[in-house]
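=== Structure Prediction Worksheet ===
Name of assembly: unnamed complex
Input type: mixed (protein and possibly other molecules)
Chain count: two
Listed entries:
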Amino acid sequence: MLVKIKSVANIGLETLPIEVEVDVASQGFPGFNIVGLASKAVEEARERVKTAIVNSGLDFPGKKITVNLAPADIPKDGAAYDLPIAIGILAASEQIPFMTMNDNRMTMNAIYYGELSLDGSLRATKGVLLVGIFAQKEHVSQIYVPIESANEASVIEDIQVFPVRNLKELVDHLHQIESITPIKHLEVSELVEEVEFETDIFEVAGQELAKRALTIAAAGGHNLLMWGPPGTGKTMLAKTMPSILPPLSPAEALEVTRIYSVAGLLSTGQSLIRRRPYRNPHHGVSPAGIIGGGSNPTPGEVSLAHLGVLFLDEMPEFPRSVLESLRQPMEDGEVSIVRASAHVSYPASFTLLAAVNPCPCGYLGHPRKECKCTDKQIRKYRSRISGPILDRIDLHVHVPVIEVEKLSTQHVSTSPTSKEIRSQVIAARKIQIDRFAETHLPAGRQVYTNSQMGNKLVKKYCQLSPETEGLLRLAIEKFDLSARAYFRLIKISRTIADLASEINILPSHMAEAIQYRQVS
Amino acid sequence: MKAQNKQTGFLGEKFSEEYLLSKNYKLITKNFSTKFGEIDLIFKDGETTVFVEVKTKKSLDWGTPEEMFTRGKYQRVKNMSVIFLKGRDVPCRIDMVAILLNPDDSLLSLKHYENMGLNMV
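=== Predicted Assembly ===
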């Protein structure tokens, strides 16, 4: 008998419908074959499915079994087809209420997705959130997924998510002997909650300018470069960044969680990424690690930092190839990864935070210590970060040596706490979210911050008074800034105005923006 | 030496035949052979045609009888069975009987493995 079961293939963030066709023929020699461009992991489903069925106390038909994963031209990878194949075999051998092509029962309109263990239980499988989103879009009312991953799909409306512990339980459910309870639907807004942070910004002594720059970066999602001698607090400042970032909005949380679901980085039972991503890859990272890669491309650090922060400590130590590969995502907010088998796009709208020393020894311009580097060494060190990358970083801020007096406790207590800065940032973000509520980028992506504005939006939302415009022109001419820098300066000044809750961009806002542009 | 091996094989087939008949299988033919190879025993188990390959060993010095039934051997039996069935598509399967004999040619153990096809893919 022939049975068709619905499942899906996740290729990048795209979900495609897959029909698992299972034929159990009574004629011909017994055997078990899987066709339909199946990878090694899918081929091995044979052993897992067979053993899981037998170990669940069910009967594995000793007949000629042919499984076809249709459409046959999409490459299928991963172990998520175990469950639909097993259900198909059980249905085709009439061990569960059958669902033939003509019999349009409830069970027919369901997606099965999950990896089987040899004992018949289901293992956590990545990408369940995408399955849920797909089911909602395609009006499939039920999805059967491993219990450990089921929470991922709990935030999707209009579908029933059945958490399956093992094959036996599912068979009983389909026989209506003992039903599996669908998991409770959760509102995304209920899940986005406050989280405690380890480092507070007020623990960093002094560095008011850098803190202000961090605030602007957090408020508008602008890139920030901090430079200064070792030990002045660059890394520590960067670590406080998560504590001043606004919480993820429900829509943002879903966007981020989708990426983490594909990457298989959600922990067991987790349904949503609640805090803004903060990624700080070591400088030994490879281009594929930062951009994403693999024959079935998985998201890299830039995508994992989507809507959050990518912190590159000791930026000049990163390989040139890695830094240059950041150019395209920094400009477009997404990466396209092309491999022989797949072409995948991942969102990568991140805030770049970089920390650099002024020279190899680190003490150039230090008030008391002597720099031991030669001119050539300094030039070589600086050339490791190319002009195009620096041009894309809007905020450059010097993190100087702190005077001993400032380290005293009195000073520390007067500086603002993360909570205070965060409320400013949240207020500024609120203005931005209201501003961009009606604006959508192509491919359905949403604009959340000033930094994501394209030139068209800049013209629409950032009207400059003649006075402000004059100041900007002067700066462009004086510092020989690029056309990109022109638009970026406007965006920064917009964020500074938002932080001050001003509707118009005032010359003072522009002046502050220009101040952060100086490339030393 | 060769004659002795033949004798062992013959004994094994005899024991398997007795065993399968006791399981209510119906014997169709023995030692069906063409120039491509041979099927030791062919039975009917209800509607299903069963092709049986017998492997007999007197000592485990060179491995178990189960080990002697390789993928290649399975394929050969399968090809032979297609010849036997003249290409007809009927319910059928390939079984294997593994036999160990004592030095005095009495039966030490007999194991019947149904449906080898599922383990051979």
